[in-house]
Structure formats: C-alpha cells, structure tokens
Design a protein that fits this description.
This protein has nine helices and 39 strands. Strands 12, 13, 15, 16, 18, 19, 21, 22, 24, 25, 27 and 29 form a twelve-stranded parallel beta sheet that branches. A nine-stranded parallel beta sheet has the order 14-17-20-23-26-28-30-33-36, with no helix packed on it. It is elongated and about 110 Å long. The mean pLDDT is 95.
C-alpha cells in the first residue's frame, strides 16, 4: 500500500455539460466519471479516498453509496477552498494526492509514479503535467530560466505570452500535508474568477524557497478533463478501445472494435466472437466460445458456453450452454434458458423457465411460463398470461407438443407428453399424454366457395343471386 490519502474534488456543477445531473455522475461504458477516478486511486494502491462534494451532493451519495468518505463543500468557492474542506477527514496523513472527479482516463500506473516521484524528491508539491498541442482552457506551468517551476497561471488569467506555454497542469498533484494545510489557509481569491485557486499554492511554495517537483505524463490523453458532452463522447471512445483491446488480448474475437460497445463491468470468455453493432452492458457474463451479434443488446445477463445470440435484445436473463437465440428475439427479465434451448425469430419471452433441449422457434409470446425438457412450441403460440388485473402461470411439462397458433389461457397446465392441436384455445388443463383440440370443427359447404361479389351473398354459376 502507498502511504497517501487521496482527495477527489467533485463539488463543481459542470455548467458546460448543460445537464440536470452533476458532471461527475455522467456515465461512460457502465461507470460514472468519478468512479473511474476512484478506481484508478484504488488500483494505484491507495487505501483511503475522500470525496469533496457540493453541487448535487445528495444524488452523488445516493448513486455511489456509503462506502466512501464524503466531505461537503458549500458554497463552492474554488478548488483551493474545496481541498481545504478535506483537512479534518484527512487526519494525520503525510501525503495528500489530489484528483479531479472529471478525469476518467487516468491510469493507476501514472498515479503510482507520481507518488513515487513525490516521495523520492522530498518536494512539498509534485505536479502531474502534460505537453499538449492545444493548451487552451488549462492552467499553464510557469518555469524560470533554470526550468524551475515558479507557479501555475489559469487560462483566464494568463497573458498572451503565458497562453503560448503548452505544458499544462493536469489538476493532479501530491502534497506534503505539513505544507498544504497552512498554504490553503493563506489563499486569497485575487483573480478573474474570484475563486480560491488551489494552483496558487505552487507560487507560494516557490516564494518560500520550498522544493517543487513535476512528472510529465507521456500520454496526455489520460489527463483530459471532461467539461462538455463532446469531450465525454471522445473519452468514451478511448475507454471502449481500452476495454475491447484488453478483451481481445484475453482471447475474445471482436470483428470491429470501433462498432462494439462493451461496458467495463462485462466479462467475456476466450474464443467468443463478438460481431459489430453489439452492445453488452452492466453485470453481464458471457462464457467461452459464444457467438454474439451482429446487432445484439445484452444487459445484466449470464450466458453459458457455446451459445449463439444473433440480432436479439436480452435483459436480466440467465442463458444456459449451447443455446441458439435469434435472429429477432426479445428475452425479457426473469427468463431462464437451460442447456441447448432454441429461441427463434420474432419470439418474446418474459419471466419464464425453458427446460433443456426445448424449442421455441418462431412467432411466439411466452410470459410467466414454466416449460419442461424437450418441449416443442409451435409457431404463433401465445400464452394469455394477463386477465387485465393479474398475471397467471402456464406450465408445459416435459416432452409436450404445442401445435401452431395455439392460445394457452393461464392459469393452465399441459401435462407430460401431451399435444395441443394447431389453432386451439386451451382454457382447461391437458392431462399427461392427451391430445387437446379446442377449435371449431371444419365444415365444408359444396360450391359455396365460388366467387362472391358482396359479403354474405353467394352467386350461382349463371351469375344469379
Ligand atoms: C483546474 C485547474 C487547472 C487545470 C485543470 C485541469 C484550478 C484553479 N485550475 O481547472 O489549472 O489545468 O483543472 O483539468 O484548480 N471543484 C470543486 N469545488 C469548487 C470548484 C471545483 O470541488 O469550488 C472541482 C470540480 O468539481 C472539478 C475539479 O474541482 O472536479 C476541477 O474544477 P474545474 O472547474 O473543472 O477546474 P478547471 O477550470 O478545469
Ligand atoms: Ca476541469
């Protein structure tokens, strides 16, 4: 464990997002922005993180839960003021790592190096910097002739000459707490924005002749702050590329990583193949050797090995091994498919259990249904599970055969090995082994099938009525 306490500044509104949701709660690939920052700190080996919140504090706490140390900044008077609020919560920690809640691309390795540089140099502040082509919007690192850091000037306060500097402040720093807390107490809001700038403590250290260190990242992309939705989308593309690359290196084939959208929370086994236009979200696990997509959305579901899912939408389902799903299937919450189930085209299944080897090949709705093993459900079968007030159960036992276009009016049970004739509307239980037919008997009326020119009137061969 690294001996540092992290403080994450997340009290600002993020006006440029133009959103009712606080900026740090916007999501990328299944995680909020601030959770990426928290994860980077955790993966860098830091065991204590304090979150400074203010704007949207209630919803932030609700979303992230009670496992974090929260400190309230009210009102929000700038980054220096924000950090000062964490003094008590930080206790006796010697090293304070400061992070912004809006830098989701930050890598844990970079944080570990920053802390190491800080601890080795003995500086009172070590700044993570980056050299960028377009530094506008960022604070600039000011250096003297000997290349020593003399301060940080904010974009809004910079002279035209200072704006030329392209070494930027990432907003990520390590501080010696013995320097930091008194320095924060002496800040003044003498700047264009009238805020207490955390960045001003750097000039203070310089004036006091205290050592200042920097670490320049060689991947400037990782310190990009998210301030608007265009930057949010760009960071999303970077994160997806990272997620897809790590899956591919672990043995998953992704035909077109630029057209495949997989959350960071998803697990996929080796030799699975993901076709384009596929979105896999939330707490989803896909086992080895599956074929997913094209054009498939899967959320919060488990998929067993060797299963194929094509052009389907799957939500909160548990799908066994060797199943074949789609094209054009809709599997809704509470659906459980056991081994070797086939679900074909234009089939919707909700809150149902389908036993091993059963087939639901076409044009069917099953809701609140338990289907046994090796059952065949004919095309166009509908479970009528809703009476307008309440949902009812349908049970179809092992080896049963449901003929095409049957309506099963729940609650109803079709016994083991029973058959239902095509076009039947079944309202009573069918005993095991029986054949149930529930439809009008066919009547053939001779000659009455000839051409009609009016409904209900029959015309004879000579054209007479
Ligand atoms: C800040 C830095 C700038 C740096 C840039 C990097 C200052 C004065 N400037 O500018 O040098 O280049 O980050 O991205 O520090 N926050 C609070 N309370 C407040 C104000 C802000 O918690 O009162 C939080 C925000 O929620 C955000 C972080 O601090 O997570 C940074 O604030 P932001 O307004 O985005 O600062 P920048 O203008 O980007
Ligand atoms: Ca920012």
């Amino acid at each position: 464990m690294l001996e540092a306490t992290a403080v994450i500044l997340a009290a600002g509104q993020g006006k440029r997002m133009r959103s009712a949701i606080p900026k740090v709660l916007h999501r990328l690939a299944g995680r909020t922005l601030v959770e990426y920052v928290l994860a980077a700190a955790r993966e860098a080996g830091i065991n204590k993180s304090i979150l400074v919140i203010g704007h949207g504090a209630v919803i932030i706490r609700e979303t992230l839960g009670d496992n974090y140390n929260y400190v309230l900044q009210e009102p929000q008077l700038g980054t220096g003021h924000a950090l000062a609020q964490a003094r008590e919560a930080a206790g006796q920690a010697d090293t304070i790592l400061v992070l912004s809640g809006d830098v989701p691309l930050l890598k844990p390795g970079t944080l570990a190096r920053l802390i190491e540089r800080h601890q080795q140099s003995g500086a009172v502040v070590t700044i993570l910097t980056a050299e960028v082509d377009n530094p506008s919007g960022y604070g600039r690192i000011k250096r003297n002739k000997e290349q020593r850091v003399t301060g940080i000037v904010e974009d809004k306060d910079a002279t035209p000459q200072e704006k030329q500097i392209n070494e930027i402040n990432s907003g990520i720093y390590c501080f010696a707490s013995s320097f930091l807390w008194p320095a924060l107490a002496s800040l003044r809001p003498d700047n264009v924005q009238g805020e207490y700038y955390l960045t001003d403590v750097v000039a203070l250290a310089c004036q006091q002749g205290l050592p200042i260190a920097t670490l320049m990242t060689d991947t400037p992309e990782e310190v990009q702050g998210i301030n608007d939705r265009a930057q949010l989308a760009r960071a999303g593309a970077v994160l997806r590329r990272r997620i897809n690359t790590s899956l591919m290196l672990a043995g998953v084939s992704i035909i077109d990583p630029t057209a495949t959208y997989i959350d960071i929370t998803v697990k996929i086994g080796a030799d699975s193949v993901i076709y384009p236009g596929t979105i896999i979200e939330g707490a989803t696990t896909i086992a080895d050797g599956c074929i997913i997509g094209p054009g498939t959305t899967i959320r919060d579901s488990q998929v067993g090995p060797g299963t194929t899912i094509t052009q389907a939408v799957v939500q909160q389902c548990s799908i066994g091994p060797d199943c074949k799903i789609g094209p054009f299937a809709y599997l809704r919450p509470g659906t459980v498919l056991e081994k070797g189930v086939k679900v074909g085209d234009f089939v919707e299944i909700k809150a149902s259990l389908i036993g091993p080897g059963s087939k639901v090949p076409h044009l069917t709705y099953l809701g609140d249904t338990t289907v046994g093993a090796k059952v065949n459900i004919g095309a166009g079968t509908i479970t009528c599970n809703y009476d307008g007030q309440k949902k009812w159960q349908t049970i179809i036992e092992n080896g049963a055969f449901i003929g095409s276009n049957a309506n099963l009016v729940a609650p109803v049970k079709v016994g083991q090995g029973a058959k239902v004739g095509a076009g039947s509307t079944i309202t009573k239980d069918v005993p095991a082994g029986a054949l149930a037919i529930a439809r009008q008997r066919q009547v053939n009326l001779p000659q009455r099938g000839k051409k009609n020119d009016e409904p209900g009137r029959t015309i004879n061969e000579k054209g007479e009525q």
